[in-house]
């Protein structure tokens, strides 16, 4: 509780110090933007340095045990630190992409760094969500930031349609989610902390009452929308297709990661409530891993196709979540990291590719290998980790999460991994064949000239190579993460605090004694 | 005149609003209003529980949800305005720009 | 079957009916739907008054009726609606009738609770003077907001800021046609 050091100078100690950084910097961006008309010189550096500082803070205070701040109900542990760092990492990686995009389209939306920072903040908040208030408020923040930046200001019909779908469905799902909370707040006796709720339920012996059983159903129905598990997955391809690439690269995926961080909280709370609670997410995980891979085969648009691997990845993440043991959480964390690198890298390369071909239809890219081998190599390299070729990161994550599923006794989930790998390898090899062999594609445009721009590092006028520069760490990470997988998982597994599980187990034991009496 | 009455009222309101979201295929406005009605039902639930338990946390939650609802509706209405400008209609059934 | 039950029944059933009308009024002109929507909130705040949550009743009126419904109406007026679907007109008297009924019920309530002569207190005030502190809703909420969950307060303020900026960005950057 009393943590000395860097964080103690900030209000509420070090619990929320990473969150304290984006708030002032986003406000500084706004102030600069309003005082210097049309001058975006400082916006991008600020939006880049803020997540860099933010990522230093949790790393510098790598803590051994969870901290619960009494004042604001914020609770953090190492698991959440990793989540938060991954969101910040993503925020850093997408910055060159968006700088490039807004320059290319000459749509100088100066507010976009602000919304990006606000989305980062929204993604960071769920990790310290330990009471119902935060859990109900936090997901809104990351999803609200998607709407203004999603490009529905253009004349194109598709972005506005995607935004309308996302906003209305998202609003519905979050109200359903929130409607589960009064039933957790009221009947157990006015507690808002998860452990208080659990204690209240156990003490009042309300496990089987109607009000309590309503709550998990509603919460489950609401929470699976944001990570886009299968019956709720329709918004993802629409948003991917309709929005400009940097927007796709950040807010939807942030809200996904944030929602799976939130889901760990809620599932932790729900798991003692009823024994059958994981049947539903189990079915959803199976459906989304299979369907996410199958539907991707039928896609004709490059970006739309890219929307489906994340759906199946969320399925794998959910397996780790359902397993509910430390190694399950470790697999979830590692898979989230892969998800970030691989997916963002793929998007960046697709953005490069489609800026050259001028289209995002897969057919039009046929045979582009003959014209520019290096360019064609990138998209072939990018989906292959998703598919799971051996030296890359995919195949190491999948067996691990399958193994966790087997360990937790979730046998139906085990054969899913290999099966879907086969499907996606088939699918991606089809794309590679198309790129390499076939003819009839559109002719590539010449690379854009660089001389218009001032190639200076601090300048927001980015050289074209900046996006390529940004792609490099992702290529490296997505290819070599498979080899460095073992240290990552062990670090994650060793740092999962056992308090969560210990506490749940104590309550469960109490309950068992009570019911046996 | 017990809390059960209030809870029944808010639950029925919530179900009505869900029905509005699910069944409505004509107007995006009505969808947005249905979402607001859902949040209203949630708020009523929180307030009733808060009075019942004599605990202020429920009212606090209701206040935050009110803020979120206001933000949601502002954003939703702005999106509807832009949609109307690009598409020229508010009907849901015309939203077929993307397939897949 | 006392008065409070009757009043609760009247208010809640009216709110439910108007909520159902809002939901069902898809094909019609949305203006009556917005008014019915307003009516739901007004009736709900009536219920809140009955629960002694006077601050929240006021907040519901101010936020929903004062701000949100006006916003809705404004947008409805801005997007001048063509009549889509049926030209079937619903008799436009419903809203007025319901509002009138509401006023009548309030009037009846006020008349029924007409002021009575004060009875002498059994507990003289001076005895407890200085020992009893009372906190209104507003006090308690303010204490909670500013000392117990200030971070969430700031956070929801940020949500509102994002919503404000987002609405401005969305509507300003639209290409004129």
UniProtKB/TrEMBL annotation, chain A:
Question: What keyword terms does UniProt attach to this protein?
Answer: Chloroplast, Membrane, NAD, Plastid, Thylakoid, Translocase, Transmembrane, Transmembrane helix, Transport
Query: What does the entry give for GO biological process?
Result: proton transmembrane transport; respiratory electron transport chain
- Annotated Gene Ontology cellular component terms: respiratory chain complex I
Tell me the organism: Selaginella moellendorffii (Spikemoss)
Membrane-spanning intervals of the chain: 277-298, 305-323, 329-352
Query: What is the recorded name of this protein?
Result: NADH dehydrogenase subunit 2
Query: Could you tell me which residue ranges the NADH:quinone oxidoreductase/Mrp antiporter transmembrane domain spans?
Result: 129-424
Main subcellular localization, coarse class?
membrane
In what way does this protein cross or attach to the membrane? Multi-pass membrane protein
Q: Where in the cell is it found?
A: Membrane
Query: What region holds the NAD(P)H-quinone oxidoreductase subunit 2 N-terminal domain?
Result: 9-100
UniProtKB/TrEMBL annotation, chain B:
**Pfam families referenced in this protein's UniProt entry, alphabetically:** Oxidored_q2
Q: Where primarily located?
A: membrane
GO MF terms listed in the record are:
oxidoreductase activity, acting on NAD(P)H
Annotated membrane topology: Multi-pass membrane protein
What are the entry keywords? Membrane, Mitochondrion, NAD, Translocase, Transmembrane, Transmembrane helix, Transport
Indicate the transmembrane segments per the record. 6-23, 30-53, 59-81
NCBIfam families found in the cross-reference section: PRK05715.1-2, PRK05715.1-3, PRK05715.1-5
Q: Cite the InterPro entries for this sequence.
A: NADH_UbQ_OxRdtase_chain4L/K, NUOK/Mnh_C1-like
Entry's Gene Ontology BP terms:
ATP synthesis coupled electron transport
Asked if Transmembrane is a keyword of the record, the answer is yes
Q: Does the keyword Iron-sulfur apply?
A: no
Q: Which organism is it from?
A: Selaginella moellendorffii
GO CC annotation:
membrane
Q: Which family does it belong to?
A: Belongs to the complex I subunit 4L family.
Q: What is this protein called?
A: NADH-ubiquinone oxidoreductase chain 4L
Q: Where in the cell is it found?
A: Membrane
Task: State the HAMAP family in the record.
Answer: NDH1_NuoK
UniProtKB/TrEMBL annotation, chain C:
Which species is this record about? Selaginella moellendorffii (Spikemoss)
Q: What's a single GO CC term here?
A: mitochondrial membrane
Report the InterPro entries cross-referenced here.
NADH_UbQ/plastoQ_OxRdtase_su6, Nuo/plastoQ_OxRdtase_6_NuoJ
State the name under which the record lists this protein: NADH-ubiquinone oxidoreductase chain 6
> Which family is this protein grouped under?
Belongs to the complex I subunit 6 family.
Q: Which Pfam families match?
A: Oxidored_q3
> Which key words are in the record?
Electron transport, Membrane, Mitochondrion, NAD, Respiratory chain, Translocase, Transmembrane, Transmembrane helix, Transport, Ubiquinone
List the top taxonomic levels of the source: Eukaryota, Viridiplantae, Streptophyta, Embryophyta, Tracheophyta
Q: Which topology term describes how it sits in the membrane?
A: Multi-pass membrane protein
The molecular function GO annotations come to: NADH dehydrogenase (ubiquinone) activity
Cellular compartment(s) = Mitochondrion membrane
- Known function: Core subunit of the mitochondrial membrane respiratory chain NADH dehydrogenase (Complex I) which catalyzes electron transfer from NADH through the respiratory chain, using ubiquinone as an electron acceptor. Essential for the catalytic activity and assembly of complex I.
Classify the source by domain of life.
Eukaryota
* EC code(s) of this entry: 7.1.1.2
Q: If you read the UniProt record, what top EC class would you report for this enzyme, in one word?
A: translocase
Enumerate the transmembrane spans: 6-23, 30-51, 57-81, 151-172
* Predominant cellular place of this UniProt entry's protein: mitochondrion
Leader sequence segment: none
């Amino acid at each position: 509780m009393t943590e000395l050091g860097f964080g103690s100078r900030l209000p509420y100690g070090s619990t929320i110090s990473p969150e304290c950084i984006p708030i002032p910097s986003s406000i500084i961006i706004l102030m600069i933007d309003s005082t210097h008309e049309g001058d975006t010189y400082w916006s991008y550096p600020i939006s880049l340095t803020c997540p860099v500082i933010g990522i230093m803070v949790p790393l510098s205070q790598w803590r051994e045990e969870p901290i619960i701040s009494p004042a604001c109900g914020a609770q953090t542990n190492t698991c959440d630190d990793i989540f938060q760092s991954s969101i910040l990492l993503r925020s850093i990686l997408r910055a060159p992409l968006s700088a490039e995009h807004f320059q290319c389209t000459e749509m100088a939306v100066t507010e976009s760094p602000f919304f990006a920072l606000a989305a980062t903040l929204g993604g960071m908040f769920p990790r310290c969500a330990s009471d119902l208030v935060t859990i109900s408020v936090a997901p809104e923040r990351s999803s609200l930031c998607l709407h203004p930046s999603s490009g529905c200001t253009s004349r194109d019909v598709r972005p506005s349609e995607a935004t309308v779908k996302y906003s209305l469905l998202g609003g519905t799902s979050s109200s359903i989610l929130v409607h589960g909370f009064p039933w957790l707040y009221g009947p157990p006796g006015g507690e808002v902390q998860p452990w208080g709720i659990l204690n209240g339920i156990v003490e009042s012996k309300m496990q089987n009452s109607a009000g309590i059983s309503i709550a998990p159903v509603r919460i489950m129905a609401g929470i699976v929308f944001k990570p886009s598990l299968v019956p709720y997955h329709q918004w993802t391809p629409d948003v991917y297709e309709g929005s400009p690439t940097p927007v796709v690269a950040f807010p939807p995926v942030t809200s996904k990661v944030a929602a799976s961080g939130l889901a760990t909280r809620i599932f932790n709370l729900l798991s003692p409530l009823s024994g059958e609670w994981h049947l539903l997410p189990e079915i959803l995980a199976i459906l989304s891993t299979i369907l996410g891979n199958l539907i991707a085969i039928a896609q004709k648009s490059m970006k739309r196709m890219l929307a489906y691997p994340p759906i199946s990845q969320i399925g794998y993440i959910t397996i780790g979540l359902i397993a509910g043991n430390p190694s399950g959480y470790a697999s979830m964390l590692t898979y989230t990291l892969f998800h970030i690198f691989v997916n963002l890298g793929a998007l960046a390369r697709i953005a490069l590719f489609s800026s050259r071909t001028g289209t995002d239809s897969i057919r039009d890219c046929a045979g582009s290998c003959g014209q520019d081998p290096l360019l064609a190599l990138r998209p072939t390299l990018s989906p292959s980790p998703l598919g799971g070729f051996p030296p890359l990161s995919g195949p190491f994550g999948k067996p691990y999460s399958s193994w966790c599923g087997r360990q937790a006794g979730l046998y139906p989930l085990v054969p899913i991994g290999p099966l879907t790998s086969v499907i996606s390898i088939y699918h991606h090899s089809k794309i590679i064949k198309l790129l390499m062999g076939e003819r009839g594609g559109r002719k590539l445009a010449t690379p854009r000239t660089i001389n218009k721009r001032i190639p200076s590092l601090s300048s927001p006028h980015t050289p074209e190579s900046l996006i390529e520069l940004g792609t490099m760490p992702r290529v490296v990470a997505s290819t070599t993460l498979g080899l460095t997988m073992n240290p990552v998982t062990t670090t994650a597994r060793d740092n999962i605090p056992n308090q969560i599980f210990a506490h749940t187990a104590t309550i469960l034991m109490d309950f068992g004694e009570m019911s046996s009496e | 005149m017990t809390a059960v009455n209030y809870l029944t009222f808010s639950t029925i309101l919530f179900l009505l609003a869900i029905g509005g979201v699910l069944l409505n295929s004509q107007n995006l406005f009505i969808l947005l209003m249905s979402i607001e009605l859902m949040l209203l039902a949630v708020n009523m639930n929180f307030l009733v529980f808060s009075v019942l338990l004599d605990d202020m946390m429920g009212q606090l939650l209701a206040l935050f949800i009110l803020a979120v609802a206001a933000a949601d509706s502002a954003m939703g209405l702005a999106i509807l305005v832009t949609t109307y400008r690009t598409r020229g209609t508010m009907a849901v059934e015309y939203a077929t720009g993307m397939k897949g | 079957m006392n008065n409070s039950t009757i009043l609760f029944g009247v208010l809640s059933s009216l709110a439910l009916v108007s909520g159902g009308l809002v939901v069902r009024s898809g094909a019609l002109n949305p203006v009556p739907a917005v008014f019915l929507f307003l009516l739901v909130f007004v009736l709900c705040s009536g219920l809140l008054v009955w629960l002694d949550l006077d601050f929240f009743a006021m907040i519901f009126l101010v936020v929903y009726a004062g701000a949100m419904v006006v916003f809705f109406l404004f947008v409805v007026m801005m997007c001048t609606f063509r009549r889509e679907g049926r030209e079937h007109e619903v008799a436009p008297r419903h809203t007025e009738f319901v509002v009138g009924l509401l006023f009548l019920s309030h009037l009846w309530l006020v008349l029924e609770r007409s002021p009575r002569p004060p009875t002498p207190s059994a507990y003289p005030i001076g005895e407890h003077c200085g020992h009893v502190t009372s906190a209104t809703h507003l006090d308690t909420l303010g204490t909670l907001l500013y000392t117990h969950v200030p971070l969430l307060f700031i956070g929801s303020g940020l949500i509102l800021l994002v919503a404000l900026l987002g609405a401005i960005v969305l509507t300003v950057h639209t290409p004129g046609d």
